[in-house]
Amino acid sequence: MRPIIVTEFLTLDGVMEAPGGGEHPHAGWTFRDIEFVPAAYALKGREQEEATALLLGRVTFEEFAPVWPSMDDQFARYNTMPKHVVSTTLAADEVEANPWGRCSLLGSIEDVAALKETEGGPIIVHGSVTLAQSLATAGPVDRYHLVTFPVLLGAGKRLFDEDGDRFARLRLVDDETFSNGVRASVYDVDREGASA
User: Fold this and answer.
1) So what's the pLDDT on residue 187?
2) Cys staple from 18: which of 24, 84, 159, 186, with CB 3.0 to 4.6 Å?
3) Domain at 4-190, CATH class
């Protein structure tokens, strides 16, 4: 069974929307008055080395597909690995005929569960707020990589939405805070303690 890892940039109040740009009034908040400390992003580099596939929602796919192939120096492994897009509005040919290559369409969380059962290594979910929330509710997430910035936005899409009935116990695996106030935390989903 392949582990599914949700990896996100978050604000201290849990907002994950528009960390690098977008339509949020404070879009690009990961860059605002935050000193760049390379070690704070080491987790992102390890993810790219360990991942064997990307799992993306429609919006993130449409944002990444035209841009990431031109940034091969930063995303070389991601650009060559299989990418799976979860969407009920895109057609398979739209997903397959894109500049990113090796992309396939999944139509449901059940399709994600089937992918998880295949042979291979970790499947990484970047951004993709609606997908990440659906996966958190449905339960196939095995690990969270959360890079939290010392920023408060108040409003915006959050990784853990307020709707839905869920309980999950997380076990802290790794945690480090850097001189710029950024904190990188890794949590495993504790299946033993997940029932309540």
Assistant:
1) 98
2) 24
3) alpha beta
